[in-house]
Amino acid sequence: MIDYEKKINQLLHDQFGFARFRPGQEETIRAVLDHRNTLAVLPTGAGKSLLYQLPGYLFAGTVIIISPLISLMQDQVDRLHRQGESAVVMLNGQLVGPERRRVLGQLGRFRFVFISPEMLANETVLAAFARVKISLLVVDEAHCISQWGPDFRPEYLLLKEIRHRLGDPRTLLLTATATPAVRQDILAKMGLAASDVAVIVQSVDRSNIFLAVKNTTGQADKQEELLALVNKYQGPGVIYFASRKLASQMAAWLTSKTTLNVAAYHAGVTAVERFRIQEQFMNNQLQVICATSAFGMGIDKNDIRYVIHFHLPSNLENYLQEIGRAGRDGKQSIAILLYSAGDELIQRQLTTITVPPVEILAQVKQGKLAPAVLGEQADLFSFYLQHNFAPAQIARAFNRRQQQLERELQQLLAYVHSDGCRREYILHYFGENLRARPSYCCDNDEADIDEVPIETSLSTHPTDTTADWASQLRRLLNITER
DNA sequence: CGGTGGGACGATAGCGTCCCACCGGTGCTCTATT
Fold first, then answer.
1. Residue ranges of domains in chain A, CATH in brackets
2. pLDDT digits (tens, 9 = 90+) for A296-339
3. How far is the CA of A377 from the C1' of B7 (A)?
4. Å between CA of A244 and C1' of B23
5. Reported pTM
6. For residue A411, which of A422, A397, A398, A400 has the smallest C-alpha distance?
C-alpha cells in the first residue's frame, strides 16, 4: 500500500489535474485499492469517474464499466480520449461486424471497457472476457440494479451471475441516490454480503434548492400556474411530465405563450433531435425543456435554475434525481411540484404489471403452452424462463416489485401532503438528519416562495421587444463576472 | 386525472351524441459460414 501513497497523489495532479480529492473520493479509492467491494453513494458532480479511472492506472488489467445508456458511455469515452487515454473502448450494439470481432479478440489491450448489461450477458462476449485479467468491475448508475428489473431491462437481474462468470472480480458500485433499503437491495441483487462491502455515503441534501409543492384544482389551473412560473423564472429550466403527449403539447403551448424557446424531450423524439435539443439547451439557445423521465442521466448543465413537476414522479428517489439537476453551480435554485388530487392514478397506471398465474408460467416453461398466452409482456416472462428462473420465483419477484412501487408512491404522496419541513422529510427517507437549515429551505418553513431569490440568465419582460439583445448582454455579463 | 377511440343508440338514411373502457414512462439488442 505504501508505494501507492505517492502514486495516488501524483496521478491526481499529473493525470487528472486536481489539487486534492473531493469529499468521498479518497475514501472510495482507498477501499478499492484495499481490494474491497465498494458501494459509493456520492452526489452528482462529486467526480465519480475518477473513482475507477485512478485505480485503473494502478492495477494491471482491464476495468469493465457497466453503463445503462450508450450516450453515457460515449461521454466517458470522449472524456478519456481528451485526457489522452487511447486504450478505451465502448462495447455495444453500435459495434458490429469485423470491428467487433477485432475488439473482442483484443479485449485485454484496453484499460477501460464500457459496456451495456445486455451486451455483457451475451455468451460470446462473456467468453471473450474469460481470457482477460479484470482489475475492476464497475456498475455506473448502480441504483438501476434496484430500480430496473424485473419489469424493465431484465438483464440487470443477471449481473449477479455475470459477475460470478467473470470470476467474482472486485466490484465498485456507483450512484448518486440510494436509500438504505435501496443500498441493501443493490447488494443483495449483486450477491454481495453487506459485511463484505465498504459503503461510502455522502449526504443527498442540496441546500441551494428550495423545495415547494403547489396544490392546484386541475389541469387548467396547473397550466396557468406553470405559465406564471415559467414567465417568472425564465430559465434555464426543466419541466417533467408523465406522458410524452403532454410534454409535447405543453412545449408548443409555452412557445406560443412566452418569448422563450421551449422544446419537448422524450423517447418518441428521434435520437438526432434529442442530441440537438441537448446541445441547444447547453448553449442557452433553448431555455426550457418539457421532458419525460427520458431526460436526465448524463445531463451536465450547471446553471439549471428550476425543475418543475407537472406530474408526480414515480418515487422520491427519482424525484431527487430529477430536481438534483438544478443548481449544480451552487446558486439558489428551486424545485416545485404541481399537484392536483388524483394525479397518483397516472403513476399507478404506469407501474401496474399483470403477473400471469404460476401455473401458466410453468406450462409455458414446459412447452405445453405458447409464450403468446403471457400477453403483451410475453417477451419479458420468456426471458426469465429461458434464464432458468422458476415460475414461482418470477411471480414472487413481480408481486414484490408491485408492492414496492405502491409503497414508494404512498411515501411520495406523504411528502406532497406533508405540512412539516420537506427537506427533513426527504433526508429522513434517505436515512439522514438535517444538519443545517438553509435560509431558503421549503414552502412549509415560513419562507415565502416568491421571496426566493432566483437569478435567471434571461430575466426580461416577455413583452419587451429588446428582450433578445438585452438577455444576450446579461448573459455575457454573467459569464464575465464569474 | 384527462384524453381518446369505439360501439351503441336514436331518430329516421347519413350522422350526432353519449357513455364507457382504456391508457399514460424509462433502453438495450439485432451473430455471419462450413
1. 2-201 (3.40.50.300), 209-346+418-451 (3.40.50.300), 352-409 (no CATH)
2. 988 889 999 999 999 999 999 999 999 999 999 999 999 999 99
3. 28
4. 12
5. 0.91
6. A422
